[in-house]
Amino acid sequence: MKVAVVGVTGVVGTVMLNLLDKRKFPITQIIPVASEKSVGKKIGFKGKDYSIVSLTDALTVKPDIALFSAGGTTSKEWAPKFADIGTRVVDNSSAWRMDSTKKLIVSEVNSETLTKNDYIIANPNCSTMQMLVVLAPLHKKFKIKRLVISTYQSVSGTGKSAIDQLYSERNSSRSEKIYPYSIDQNLLPHCDVFEEDGYTKEENKLINETKKILNDNSIQITSTAVRVPIEICHGESVNIEFEKEYKLEEVNSILKSSTGLIVEDEPKNNLYPMPINAANKDEVFVGRIRRDFSVKSGLNLWIVADNLRKGAATNTIQIAEKLIEMGIAKP
Q1: Helices and strands in the chain, H and E counts
Q2: Taking a C-beta distance cutoff of 8 angstroms, is the pair 120, 102 a contact?
Q3: Residues 288, 311: Cα–Cα separation, whole Å
Q4: Which fold has domain 2-124+312-325?
Q5: In sequence order, which residues have a C-beta less than 8 Å from that of residue 257 and are 6 or more positions away?
Q6: Which of 203, 153, 141, 214 is nearest to 179 (CA)?
Q7: pTM of the prediction?
Q8: Which fold does the domain 127-307 belong to in CATH?
Q9: Which residues, including other chains, have CB under 8 Å from residue 178's CB and lie 6 or more apart?
Q10: Adjacency order of strands within the sheet including 103-104
């Protein structure tokens, strides 16, 4: 298949390229795409160097699949142009997530809803993504009534410039400041921009995307998103109130049998999910599974995943793999 990676020089684009090779995605022609300033530069893939091309040039090649991770503005303008020529677009930006005409897909949760009519498919926000891998099978069994979400998000969620800021501060060197304050030795309760309701865009993404993916607007959700001084992986403390009664043994059984999940929950042996172990992994890790005694049918969870892998690049490629498996994407 002819596969375009749009935003190939970015943090997520780089991971996408590596995973396409690692997962042995069926590629006959790779089309690396980036901004005009990168056009003509070389990028390696499967031991060969390829020249980066512009979006206009990529369009003329007519890719079978285009994996976008170049920001919402680029996606809004160019994804429809690729879709119009028959390219299946999987987009990692926020551009199409809440568009009622576009599917918002977590591969383990709702990829079966994809059809031949889907030409632009949205990849969820990284924090929503890892959380839904855990929550979806529990919602199916016990029905979630309310969620209280607190996130601990790494700087790579902002991009390379934020990683540069973190390490320059640690090394006492100068760099462009992406955040309004230092991030090293600090916590910022400020992920994305603040909106009129007092929540940040990131917090509202967690609320709105969760309802769309689970196809349930009745769930009551509140969230707080915090930026923490680590490079990779997001952590989430999630408090759930179910409508139905549950047993912890049943919760553990459901999670252990769910695809894409690894349960690490042995507190007596100090076993619980941590970014240091989840980094560079495709799975979502869950632990600290315990009853919330303050409310009927309450449950607490701690969830960790690599935001560049499952939170972005891996799920994007898994969607593309599903399109091929279902016979929707064809060369």
Answers
A1: 10, 14
A2: yes
A3: 21
A4: Rossmann fold (3.40.50)
A5: none
A6: 153
A7: 0.96
A8: Dihydrodipicolinate Reductase; domain 2 (3.30.360)
A9: 158, 159, 161, 162, 165
A10: 29-33, 2-6, 65-68, 88-91, 120-122, 103-104
Query: Which residues form the catalytic set?
Result: 126, 234
In the numeric block, which tokens belong to residue 268? 């007596």
Structure tokens given for 82 = 């690729």
For the chain, the domains span: 2-124+312-325, 127-307
Tens digit of pLDDT at every position of the chain (331 positions)? 999 999 999 999 999 999 999 999 999 999 999 999 999 999 999 999 999 999 999 999 999 999 999 999 999 999 999 999 999 999 999 999 999 999 999 999 999 999 999 999 999 999 999 999 999 999 999 999 999 999 999 999 999 999 999 999 999 888 789 999 999 999 999 999 999 999 999 999 999 999 999 999 999 999 999 999 999 999 999 999 999 999 999 999 999 999 999 999 999 999 999 999 999 999 999 999 999 999 999 999 999 999 999 999 999 999 999 999 999 998 7
* Residue written as token pair 């941590």: 274
**Amino acid at position 266, single letter:** E
Which of 211, 227, 239, 212 lies closest to 299 in space, CA to CA? 239
